Structure formats: C-alpha cells, structure tokens
Amino acid sequence: MMLEIAYWAQNQFSYEETEKIIYKIYNAIVNDDLIRKVTDHIGSIVFNNDTKYANQYFSLLHNGNLIYPENKKNGVLYIEIDGAAINTRIENNNSTWKENKLCVVFNSDNIRYWHNKIDNELNHKIYKREYTSFIGSADIFKKYVFYCALRNGLGKFEKIVLISDGAPWIRNLKEELFPEAQQILDFFHLYENLFSFAKFYFKKNEKKYIPWVEKYKDLLKTGYHLKVIDHFSKFSQNTLDSAPVNIYKYLLNNINNIDYKSYVAKNYFIGSGAIESGNKIVLQKRLKGPGMRWNIETAQTLLTLKAKVESDLWVEDVCCQTSQKTLWAA
C-alpha cells in the first residue's frame, strides 16, 4: 500500500488530489500529510540506492577499474542534459529558485523511424529512455549522469552524442566523463539566441532582423559556421555589452559543436527535444504548479520517483528495491 501511495503521489497534481484518488480506488482514508511522509520515505530509499551505485561506478571510472566491452556495436548513445528552475523554501542571494539538473539517456537501438504517408517526412519515436534528476551542484550530478549512461549502453556503442544548450558546466561535464563524445549545441537554442540578439541589434525592426536571422540560420545549418563566426567577430565589442546574449562568444565557445551539416549527414539528432519534453513531464507537470514551493529533500525524492515512472522503471527500480522489511521499518 505504501508503494501504491507513492505511485499516485508522483502521478497527481498534489498530495490533496492523491488523498482523493486513494479513497476512490482503495476506499482507504489516508490524509495528505501521511501521503507526503510515505512518498518521502519510498523516494529516499530509491534515491539513496541510486546514489550508492552512482558513487560506486564513478569511483571505478576514476580508479581505472571500469571494464568496457572490447567490440562496440554500430549505433549511437544519446545523452541530453538541461537545467530548469524549481521554487524552494530555501532563500539564497534573495531568490528561492534552485536549478534542477535533468539528464535523459537513450540509444539508437530503441529509436524507430518511419515516413509520413502524407508528405513522406521522416518521423521517429524513442521507445525506451531513462531520466535522472538532481537538485544540486554539477560536481555531484555528473555521477548520476555517468551511472545513467552506463545503464543504457555506455561503452557498447561506437558513437556517443551529447546534446545541450551550451552551458559551460555541461561542456565541462562532457570533457570529464565523455571526452570521445560529439557534443552538439541544440540548434533550436542557437536559433532562439540568434533571434534574441538580432531583435536587440536592429531595435525590434522586423523588416531587418527577421531576414537577418533567417540568413544566418540557413548558413549555420548548411556548414558555413566558421564563416558565420568570422562575420560575427565585430559583435565582440564592448558597445554590445547590453545585448541579451554575446552571440560571437556564444558561437566561439561552441565552435566544435555547431557543424550541423555533418551531424545531419551522420543522421544525428541536432535538437534537444527529448530533454525539453523531459523537463515538462518530470519537473513542471508535478512540481511547478501555481504557488508551489518545496523543501529540497522532498522535491528530490518526488523527482526521483517521477523520473523512474517516466523511464518505465517503477517495478525494477522502486518495487524491487523497497523490500517489505525496509518498508515496515518506517
């Protein structure tokens, strides 16, 4: 019953709604405070178990004791990482918002492609993916990322592709954990930053900034990224310090991650749609309702359970890891 309560608590919009569901389905009266305590307990067991294995395998990596298969299979391991804010009860630097770091890992074995019958457009669906979520520093989060990647085929595939919005902490994480990976700057983040800069630079004159954005968007997508960076060198001047984004520095910092023509030729994804949707279903759907503020520990346990459900790992990683003896000890 504790497992059922925890499942519905991560599924419903609030603990109060969970209370109604429990009564409707099981004809049991369990108040919202007890539901929160049960959910915290179950989530803590699962989170602590993930932490134990993440630390264990990260230690093996740094001690040089991690053994990978000798023969790699043809295919791609995708890793997408992003951060999104969550409102907490802890104030720091006049803000209660903290960053929840989210990672999703999947591989090409679990992607299916088909052509749309109407316009023959190529579509795809990811049938299996795993999320890992952590409210805290990148230095700790990287251990969960590595463990998640290992569980989903790290070392077994010839190629690794890491897609992100270009945040420095993600670039650093990639260099430490996956130096052989091809990092790709999410094309849609790049387009948004290009649009934001152009709107500022041309003083919101649509007749100027819209054609300008489309021109450079096409150049970036067709393999002329080095020329674009060279053209944008003039935007590195201090006179543009008030711009919403330093577009030249942004591209220069990602110079090895924006050769979109070659990525498309290799059939790599160039957008971070999987992690963007992950932020919505793992974080926003359950923890970013109107007026919601969270204790970090409670938010972490709930995010852990939510990630397990959305990864189809509820039975494997929650039910199987929470023995009756452990639950009764609560």
Strand-helix topology:
Elements: H1 2-11, H2 15-26, H3 32-62, E1 73-92, E2 95-107, E3 111-115, E4 122-126, E5 130-135, H4 138-151, E6 157-164, H5 168-177, E7 182-185, H6 187-201, H7 206-221, H8 225-231, H9 247-253, H10 260-265, H11 273-287, H12 296-310, H13 314-319, H14 324-328
Parallel strand pairs: 1-6, 6-7
Antiparallel strand pairs: 1-2, 2-5, 3-4
Helix pairs in contact: 1-2, 1-3, 1-12, 2-3, 3-4, 3-12, 4-5, 6-7, 11-12
Keywords, separated by commas or semicolons:
330 residues, two-stranded antiparallel sheet, five-stranded mixed β-sheet, globular, 14 helices, alpha/beta, 51% helix
Describe this entry's structure for a reader:
The chain has 330 residues and is of the alpha/beta class. Among the domains are: 2-62 and 296-328, no CATH class; 187-270, no CATH class. The chain has helices at residues 2-11, 15-26, 32-62, 138-151, 168-177, 187-201, 206-221, 225-231, 247-253, 260-265, 273-287, 296-310, 314-319, 324-328, and strands at 73-92, 95-107, 111-115, 122-126, 130-135, 157-164, 182-185. The strands form two sheets. It has a five-stranded mixed beta sheet with strand order 5-2-1-6-7, sandwiched between helices. Helix content is 51%, strand content 18%.
How is this structure best summarized?
With 330 residues, the chain is of the alpha/beta class. The chain contains 14 helices and seven strands. It has helices at 2-11, 15-26, 32-62, 138-151, 168-177, 187-201, 206-221, 225-231, 247-253, 260-265, 273-287, 296-310, 314-319, 324-328, and strands at 73-92, 95-107, 111-115, 122-126, 130-135, 157-164, 182-185.
